Amino acid sequence: MRRLILLASLALSGCGFQPLYGSNGDGGVRVMHEMQRIYVSNIPERQGQELRLALQEQLGSGSTKAPDGYTLNVSYGVNASVIDIHSDNTAGRYRELGTAHWRLYTVEPSPRFLAEGDVNELDGFNATFEQYLAQTLNDETVRARIAQTLAGSIRQQIAIWFKTQIKPSRNNAADLPSYFDPNAMPTQNGQPYEKAGPDGFPAAATGRTDLNSTDN
Asked: From residue 187, how far is each of 3, 43, 103, 140, 192 by CA, in Å?
């Protein structure tokens, strides 16, 4: 078994595959060094501080260290919705979508913009009837998990940029599929439609509100 793993590793290296953070060669070491020079700017609110701490941990940068290489600015938000609506109008599950947009700048008198990207993470928890403390703890756990996952995604995008200088693609709402809403009243522009959510389903299919609907 050990011999097979060794042969597989040799085959991958022979075809040009290299780990993103690999220590072989100067590329991986340079990426890790540059990422440690990133200063994460303050992100407002408690959920923003959770994301900032996760980024500092995963990038290897200290919070008290003066910025000397790069500054990372992140805008972050979490939207909550309920699904699994029961006949008594209670919800069986809470779903939370964390979205973040990051921008990387140089540290100099006139900072230069280098790269930007978008990341998102969908998570949730089951509702607990009249167990308010448990529900609060579940919500905090989910938000901490979202922050950790988003930090990992941002770290990966930045590492790829340092490695290849290719900027990540931006999320574009226009690329999402649209569906006509059969329950909405027609307007002067025709039948209202709504875009798919992060799970690929339109809002009407899960009972949530679609903020991109033409009927809002």
From this structure: 68, 41, 39, 41, 7
